[in-house]
């Protein structure tokens, strides 16, 4: 009984310190092809797919340093824009995502 109470006390003290939803995912769909994929999002550490991200109530933005592309996810509309620079001026794509 003492061990149970000690464990209960530790959990009760530490639980409020843990983020409510530290880790989740963006589930995305290419609206043209229908292809789907998931991007891991760690709200507690402020990362998307292990890259540092700016996370607010309205948007999540990050740069994929392996491809040098920028991503902006609008939480209200579900639009995720990818911006890529190139020698011809660059391009962008818009997919649909939802935070799970």
Give a quick rundown of the structure:
With 100 residues, the protein is mainly beta.
Q: State the oligomer.
A: single chain
- Helix content range: 10-25%
Question: How many domains make up the coordinates?
Answer: 1
Count the beta strands: 8
Number of helices: 1
What's the helix-strand series?
Answer: HEEEEEEEE
What proportion strand? Answer: over 45%
> Mind summarizing the main beta sheet?
8 strands, antiparallel, barrel
Strand order of the largest sheet: 1-2-3-4-5-6-7-8
Which stretches of 5+ consecutive residues score pLDDT under 50? 4-15
Coarse structural class: mainly beta
Based on Cα principal axes, name the global outline: globular
The radius of gyration is 18 Å
Which whole number gives the mean pLDDT?
Answer: 85
Q: Gap between N and C termini, in Å?
A: 38 Å
């Amino acid at each position: 009984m003492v061990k149970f109470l000690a464990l209960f006390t530790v959990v009760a003290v530490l639980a409020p310190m843990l983020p409510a939803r530290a880790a989740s995912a963006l589930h995305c769909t290419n609206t043209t092809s229908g292809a789907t994929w998931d991007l891991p999002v760690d709200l507690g550490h402020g990362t998307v797919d292990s890259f540092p991200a700016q996370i607010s109530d309205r948007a999540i933005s990050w740069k994929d340093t392996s491809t040098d592309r920028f991503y902006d996810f609008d939480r209200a509309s579900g639009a995720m824009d990818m911006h890529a620079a190139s020698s011809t001026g660059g391009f962008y794509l818009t997919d649909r995502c939802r935070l799970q």
